[in-house]
# Entry
Amino acid sequence: MLTFTVPNMTCGGCAGAVRQALGELPGIGKVEIDLPAKIVRVEQGAAPEPAVRAAIEQAGFEIAA
# Structure
């Protein structure tokens, strides 16, 4: 499972946008979002990590280093 900190994810709408972006990516399994902690956990399945990162970023969110 991949884990990302997404500091500018601040509300349910943000979490929904991230979830939708990841849902459109082929090969994604389960997506867990901990909004108060600003954490996104992704069961990546066949999707490579760079593609998962790109989907989050293309949805308009930065991933902390």
User: Anything to note?
Assistant: The helical segments are 12-23, 49-58. Strands lie at 2-5, 31-34, 39-42.
